[in-house]
Design brief:
seven-stranded antiparallel sheet; 32% helix; 6 helices; single chain; alpha+beta; 9 strands
């Protein structure tokens, strides 16, 4: 019986991995919309394995009339950042910090590459990511690189591997780059201690 209860508790966590068909109500999306100050920008966000140097995930943040993160087949969720078809809305500075902190962990660091674009390019990017819909599992690289090509970044080759896309994007004139490392494991990290038992009141207890 305990084993069945434990499996039931863990299944929702496993279901969050890979592609989801999440469509928050439009009213919530509109209520949470956030426009960042400053010029329009595109930001490529890449998770890089600290041991192998290979890319684990690609996402594209678009900052125009509002700021969103296009997170194809991503697993990050927050109750105040509604998602529709792999587009996460309401990316305030706090939500952006949460998103980066989720991906930066002992085995991965995050590479953040910004480029300033004109308002028309940012609005086209917003339209493209919202029209795309949920991506299939393990297709984040193909999806993000294809979108960058549609936006005119011809030097970014269509690729499966996020690290290859990151290197191509680094060659685009005007791109700036910074890296975020974090060796802590907190309650929201994918590397949090695994579940080992259920308490009497039904809550999951993690191993130390």
């Amino acid at each position: 019986m305990l084993r069945a209860l434990l499996l039931a508790a863990v299944l929702p966590l496993l279901a969050a991995c890979g592609a989801d068909n999440v469509y928050a109500p439009l009213e919530e999306v509109q209520a949470r919309a956030y426009a960042a100050p400053g010029p329009a920008k595109l930001t490529l966000i890449t998770a890089i394995n600290n041991r192998s140097g290979s890319g684990g995930h690609s996402a594209l943040m678009v900052s125009g009339s509002q700021r969103v993160i296009f997170d194809p087949a991503g697993t990050w969720h927050h109750p105040t950042a509604p998602e529709r078809g792999d587009v996460i809305f309401g990316i305030t500075p706090t939500m952006l910090e949460f998103y980066i902190d989720y991906h930066a962990r002992p085995t991965y660091h995050v590479v953040i590459q910004d480029i300033t674009v004109d308002a028309a390019t940012a609005e086209r990017a917003l339209a493209l990511v919202q029209a795309h819909g949920p991506a299939s599992k393990a297709t984040c690289g193909q999806t993000v690189s294809g979108l960058l090509q549609e936006l005119g970044f011809s030097g970014v080759r269509r690729a499966w591997y996020p690290d290859r896309i990151m290197r191509d994007f680094a060659e685009v004139p005007g791109v700036t780059e910074r890296k975020v490392f974090d060796d802590t494991v907190d309650a929201h990290s994918p590397e949090r201690p695994r579940v080992v038992a259920l308490t009497d009141d039904g809550f999951v207890r993690a191993g130390s």
